[in-house]
């Protein structure tokens, strides 16, 4: 699963509410209250900037060669994370997001600003 950015252009950057971002968004909004699955499943999460950099490096490496090589960008073999651990981290972040004043909100609102 390609997730939000690790470093570039900003940590946590996403450009659309799809895939993992959709799960986070709807869970944070209270729409998604239950997610059925095996809690011991290893999630293979790769940051979008890591994936993009891998594509650029693979293209540069492959340039001018007469053969085609396949490259994989995965995280589960080096940095495995169980579904339950991932969900715990996400829920902690969502709770922090909705109980802390937004830095963009001058009124000190308890809900994050959409502007």
Record keyword descriptors for this entry.
115 residues, mainly alpha, two-stranded antiparallel ribbon, elongated
Structural overview:
By secondary structure, this protein is mainly alpha-helical. 37% of the residues lie in helices and 7% in strands. It is built from three helices and four strands. The chain has helices spanning 19-28, 48-62, 83-99, and strands at 2-3, 42-43, 46-47, 81-82. The strands form two sheets. Strands 1-3 form a two-stranded parallel ribbon. Strands 2-4 form a two-stranded antiparallel ribbon. The chain is elongated. It starts with a strand and ends in a 16-residue tail after the last helix. 3% of the residues are buried.
Instruction: Please give the radius of gyration in angstroms.
Output: 18 Å
Order of neighbouring strands in the sheet with most strands: 1-3
Please tally the helical runs, counting DSSP H or I stretches of 4 or more residues. 3
Task: Give the averaged pLDDT, no decimals.
Answer: 78
Sheet/helix structural class = mainly alpha
Q: What percentage of the residues does DSSP assign to strands (E)?
A: 5-15%
Low-confidence stretches: 110-115
Number of strands: 4
Categorize the overall geometry: elongated
Give the N-terminus to C-terminus distance in angstroms: 28 Å
Reported for the largest beta sheet, the result is:
2 strands, parallel
Order of helices and strands: EHEEHEH
Helix content: 25-40%
């Amino acid at each position: 699963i390609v997730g939000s950015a690790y470093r570039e252009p900003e940590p946590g950057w996403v450009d659309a509410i799809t895939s993992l971002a959709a799960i986070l968004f709807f869970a944070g909004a209270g729409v998604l209250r239950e997610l059925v699955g095996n809690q011991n499943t290893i999630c293979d999460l790769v940051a979008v900037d890591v994936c993009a950099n891998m594509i650029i490096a693979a293209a540069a490496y492959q340039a001018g060669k007469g053969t085609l090589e396949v490259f994989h960008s995965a995280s589960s073999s080096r940095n495995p994370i169980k579904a339950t651990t991932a969900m715990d981290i996400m829920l902690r972040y969502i709770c922090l997001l909705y109980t802390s004043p937004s830095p963009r909100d001058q009124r000190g609102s308890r809900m994050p600003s959409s502007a």
